[in-house]
Design a protein that fits this description.
211 residues; seven-stranded mixed β-sheet; Heat Shock Protein 90
Length: 211
């Protein structure tokens, strides 16, 4: 285990082909920002096409980069609000009715909905009047649109969701659905569901136990 991050895997190591680079990415980012982070993964997956596997790997890596850089707090801050020193990131997969469902979550601070709304108005995605009527959940879903979450309204300003930019279009290209949730005190979670057509019938465990 590195100081910046710990990863929990199944004894057989079957998670390696899909998410092998995630613990190292989290470790390096956490160390760079003076943070600690633990990555866990669990669930069941089937055989995936190369393009789907590459997309999932890329998405999880982007989520981890966002979480460690912008949402997971410094250990002293986490300790003050009753959280463990190490930020927690989890990747869970299952196959309800043959579809592939992946949930990626962190326990850091939530996405700044007001900053995201201001960005949407500044980029002319929505009008001021329309933005004022939007619910927090409606605003959050805009983070998945291309050209919004990666844009800054002021230098150095981030809403904490830059890596999610444009992901909805890719999910829909694969025939799937995506949902984003971010609320106190639970953190941020993205749920992706892909149809059975992208997953084979042979299922193997991603993780069977923790280290």
């Amino acid at each position: 285990m590195t100081q910046g991050s710990s990863a929990r895997r199944g004894a057989a190591g079957v998670s390696d082909p899909l998410f092998a680079d995630v613990p190292q990415l989290a470790s390096e980012l956490a160390a760079r920002h003076g943070k600690r982070c633990e990555v866990t993964s669990s669930g069941l997956i089937g055989d995936l096409g190369a393009d789907v596997a590459a997309f999932l790997r890329g998405f999880v890596s982007r989520f981890v980069e966002d979480a460690v850089t912008h949402r997971i707090e410094q250990p002293v801050v986490r300790r003050a609000v009753g959280k463990p020193d190490a930020g927690q990131i989890s990747v869970r997969l299952d196959q309800p009715d043959g579809a592939l469902r992946m949930r990626v979550a962190d326990d850091g601070k939530t996405i700044d909905v007001e900053a995201l709304k201001a960005r949407a108005v500044a980029c002319r995605f929505v009008s001021c009047e329309f933005a004022a009527e939007m619910t927090d959940q409606e605003v959050l879903q805009m983070a998945l649109l291309s050209g919004l979450s990666g844009t800054q309204t002021r230098p150095g300003e981030h809403s904490g969701c830059r890596g999610l930019c444009g992901v909805r279009a890719e999910i829909e290209r694969l025939g799937g659905r995506i949902r984003l949730d971010s609320r106190c005190p639970f953190g941020t979670e993205v749920e992706i569901t892909l149809p059975q057509s992208v997953v084979s019938s042979r299922v193997v465990p991603l993780v069977s136990s923790a280290e």
